[in-house]
Write a structure and sequence with these properties.
- The structure is a single chain.
- The protein has 5 helices and 32 strands.
- With 571 residues, it is mainly beta.
- Among the domains are: 1-36; 71-313, Beta Barrel (Porin), CATH 2.40.160.
- The protein has a 24-stranded antiparallel β-barrel. The protein has a two-stranded antiparallel ribbon with strand order 6-7.
- The chain starts with a helix and ends with a strand.
Length: 571
Amino acid sequence: MKKKYFIKIRIAFLSCTFLLISHISCAQLLNNLGSLDLGDIHGNFQSTAQYYIPDSTIGAAEVPEKMLFNGFMNLIYTKGKFSAGVRYESYLNRLQGYPANFQGTGISYRYATYKSDFLEVTVGSFYEQFGNGLTLRTYEERNLGLDNALDGVRVKAVPVKGVYLKGLIGKQRADLKTNSGLVRGFDGEIQLNEAIKQLTDKKLVISIGGSFVSKFQEDRDPTLVLPQNVGSSAGRMRISRNNFSLNTEYASKINDPSYDNKYIYKPGEALLMQASYAKKGFSLLLTGSHIDNMSFRSDRNEQQATQLMNYIPALNKQHTYNLLAFYPYASQSNGETQYSAEVSYKIIKKPKYKLDVVVNYTGSDALDTMRYDVATDTTREGYKVNSWLPASLTSKKKNYLNIDPTLADNRRLFRELYIEINQKFGKKIKSTLIYSNQFYNKDVLQKPGDGKIYSSIVVADITYKLKTESAIRVELQGLFTKQDHQDWAYGLIEYTLNSNIYIAVGDQWNYGNDHANERYHYYNVSAGYIKNAHRIELTYGKQRAGIFCVGGVCRNVPASNGVTLTITSSF
């Protein structure tokens, strides 16, 4: 009996010892794991759900599903020189106005990247830009429904100090789950002040670069002989010294028949020049561009913002105020000459009473061209360019019988004189006052027969600070024109309760419409909650049909009426 009791004591003692050792070992293991660098995971999330209410007065059609939804989440893992990520997207079904290729659910973007001092390799999905984007720019602009990412392999290298090389090959995103056109490209840039020791400390900073991009698409057209490989090349240079800088790039493209240019065989070219001067309290920016037949897509038959390979920058002011963006200008990749000048000057520099003024003038003209006779044009180039100067200047000296008839009365595309005054009145009040005089050739830019719009727009945006985290903002806008739908007014009151909560009420009213029964109100009520990097917004109201643009790339937005819930979060 005593022997059995002694054996039980030994077994209990050994068991306790084992458990104690195991506990200590587990604790040490957990402690060691906690000290290990396992990398970081971060990302962001966004979802937008809209419930649609039919409204025949503003042309808001019935939506069969009643509610539409867009959403996505990015997950990114990083550890040392390695990073990887995925994006899951969901369109059930897509919000009105988004391209048809945004539909369904799935992983549309995934990649892995290794980066060292000498080499960076990415496999999977990626975005890239060469120079100013005249030959290649793939990027995402979710508000436009634009995503032209490439899926393949990209390599970046720095073989010697100051020399930067890029090479890539991939297929461009066509829709949520498939990729289409094959794209290949190479870009090189030399920072002379880094590469040449004698220039390291010089005030004159110079960089030169060049790129070549080609696409491959099979020729399946039964009537035309289409080039299956289309190449585009560019050279660029940047110079800066003290307060002055100059950036210029020239690109050319071989014949590329497409839907955009009505399948002509004319080569394309583009020139972009930017010069700036800046010192404390003053800046001057001069920009000009000449674009001729430079639409470049991986699929020649696509339209609007789908499968664009390059980017034609818009030089005009990018507006965020409602009525200033009423007639937005989109870049004309088929042909335009654009120029812009902007001066910014700080009159009062004291932070408490700061006063600064911005003046901008922008113009855009169609090209001065002569159309070839289709019956005798064996080259099928369609037209030739008479001058790189704005057509509004050169065509005054010519006989319009030889000028493309679409340009005879429509050589001016867009004009804007823009004046902005920002001022603070002590610690509580700050204001923005804007005047804009615009010309918008709706005949050419949207629909023949819509006419030319001459308008004046005024904006007053005033914020009164109540407490440290509380404020009231009042926004008043007016658009005055005798064309199109005539005069509009817009008013907004926004109350920020604290750093977390805000409420806004606005109304856009077509009060000057010649047809009294079409003087519609587009009212809007919204409330939002913000907590660190998380934001929830609920909106109810009406949306006018029109064109929405970002950076010169646009999409049509249909009229709508309903409730929208938007959630965004970063982590």
